[in-house]
Here is the input.
Amino acid sequence: MDKFGLYVPQLLPFKEHFLPEAHRACMGCGIALGVRQMYKALEEKKEWMEKAHWEIPFKQPLPGTLLKTAKEAKEEVRPALLRIEKEDQSHLLICFDNEAVEAKPTPEVLKKWFPAAAVARGFHYVATSCPSYPFDLIDKVKRGMESEGDSYLHVLSPCPVGWNFESEFTVQIGRFAVECGVFPLYEVVAGDYRLTIDHPKIRPVEEYVSLQSRFDHFKKKEIAAIQAEVDKEYAKLREGKE
Here is the structure.
C-alpha cells in the first residue's frame, strides 16, 4: 500500500450517490466499490445516469465480438455490465468483472479477453481500471463519457466470496493484481496503447495468487508459465502495443 493510501477518502468527492443501505452487496465487494467511484465521476452529469441500465451478458448479450470472445474462452463469465448513453447517442459500456468462473479456475482466468475484443470491434476509447486505484478509475469514466463514439471500460472487481479472501483485503488484492502485472491499467485511444499506472519493477505473480484460496491448486510450473506470459504482455504494453 502506498504512503498516500490513508488520505484517499479525503481527496475523493465527499458526496455519496451509492449508499450502503441501497444495495445488498457483500462486505468488501469490489463491484460495489467500483460503482460507488463511478457515481462520483458522473455526479455533475446526473442525466447520464438516468439513462443508464444494467445488462447481464448471457441474457442481453455483449455486442458482437465481445460475447463471441467470452464463449471462446470457455469460461462461465458473469460480469455486471452497465450501459450509459452519451450525448452523441453512442454508449459507454462499463464491465465490472468479478471473474465469476468455476470453483477451480484455470490459469487462463487471469487473461482479460473483453478489452482486446472491444479494440478489435472499433470502440473509440477502451481502458482497464480497478477501484483499488480510484483516481485512475474516475478519470477513465470521465474520458470514456467525453470521447466520441462508443467507449468500453473493464473494471477488475475483487470478490471476497468467490476469490476466497477476507473482506478487508479487497483494496490490497486489487493493487497486487496491478503491481504484479496480472491486471495492468492502460487505455487505448485510436489504437494506441498507453499504461496509465506503470510499476518499474512488477511484483512476482506468486504474491498475487498466494493471497487467494481459489488458486491453491496451482502448481509451481503453472505459476511460472503465468509469470512468463505476464512479463511478455507487460513489456508489449510498455512499448505501446498489445
User: Anything to note?
Assistant: The longest strand covers residues 91-97. The first helix runs from residue 8 to 11.
